[in-house]
Amino acid sequence: MPCQNLFAALFVTLVAAVTPVANAADLAIVVEGVASADGRVMVALFDSTATFRRKPVRALVAPAAVCTVRLDVKDLAPGDYAYVVYHDANANNALDMNAVGMPVEDFAFSNNAMGQGGAPGFDAARFALPATGATVTVNLR
Which of 1, 36, 37, 48 places its Cα 20 to 30 Å from the Cα of 95? Predict the structure, then answer.
């Protein structure tokens, strides 16, 4: 009988591993205005003012493609989110800056939000993700 108990435990573990999170939503982020197929597109997704631009709930990477890149995020809790996206054209895993701290690679914030003299806050970039999921679009600049 120990083998049956082992099989039952293994079965429960496998089912739990493939069962989606209850009330999970999927998010598609469509990044437009990608200038070249060099490097990759990087996205950091945040779920609060306290973590915005500090500690993402998800980080995504996709190969760059001219014009449009789509990144899919699965199994998110419905709620408010904001993201930062940039085209890491030289694939060095960093948003490159010039000598005065201005980005030299294309970037954007969700809602195409812009700050005054710097990055926008979470509230300006925030969007609601319903339980049914969503597709959001942003334009690199």
Answer: 48
CB 109 within 8 A of CB 125: yes
Task: Specify the long-range contacts of residues 54-59, CB closer than 8 Å, at least 24 apart.
Answer: 57/81
Q: Determine the Cα–Cα distance for residues 124 and 138; give it in Å rounded to an integer.
A: 14
**Sign of torsion, CA 135 81 123 30?**
negative
In 7-103, beta strands by DSSP E: 25-34, 40-46, 58-63, 67-76, 79-88
- What's the pLDDT tens digit per position in 6-20? 333 433 333 434 445
79: nearest Cα among 31, 136, 126, 114: 126
pLDDT digits (tens, 9 = 90+) for 67-78: 999 999 999 999
